[in-house]
Specification:
Layout (H helix, E strand, L loop, with lengths): L6 E6 L2 H10 L13 E6 L2 E7 H8 L12 E4 L3 H14 L2 E8 L5 E6 L5 E6 L4 E2 L5 E2 L2
Parallel strand pairs: 1-3, 4-7
Antiparallel strand pairs: 2-3, 5-6, 6-7, 8-9
Length: about 140
């Protein structure tokens, strides 16, 4: 298997609410989305999808216990002010701020917001990582 992630699907309780949230964050649903069923968002070289949490669990062959699934998504930016700006936008769109932007022990700056369905997103500056024009991240 090649070391690549092509698609991340987030299980959501209310698809319309989740689409509204991600639109408020600046994401645009792709035309291939199926109204009322699934929303796709192009994100650089990968795709983010929103789909019914129950349908996703059934399709994946897992039991949905309703708790956090042990995954945190990340959005890397170039500067601490960008972290704070994304967190402010997320809160205005309906997210809960779990950790305000602050310097990190590893020399960066980061904060965390949690989307309306409980999916945590870290927004971070990692000074050792390069961010391409398309948002791709390259490790040193």
């Amino acid at each position: 298997m090649e070391p690549r992630i092509s698609l991340i699907t987030l299980g959501v309780d209310d698809l319309a609410r989740s689409i509204t949230f991600y639109r408020a964050m600046g994401w645009t649903p792709h035309p291939s989305s199926v109204d009322g069923e699934v929303a796709f968002f192009q994100s650089g070289g990968m795709v983010l999808a929103l789909w019914s949490r129950a349908a996703l669990a059934a399709d994946s062959g897992v039991a949905d216990t309703g708790g956090w699934g042990g995954v945190t998504l990340a959005h890397n930016v170039d500067a601490p002010d960008d972290v704070d700006g994304v967190l402010t936008s997320a809160e205005a769109a309906g997210a809960r701020i779990a950790r305000v932007g602050a310097p990190t022990a590893w020399g960066g700056y980061s904060g965390v917001f949690v989307d309306p369905d409980g999916h945590p997103w870290e927004v971070a500056v990692n000074p050792a990582w390069q961010i391409g024009a398309d948002g791709s991240v390259t490790l040193p």
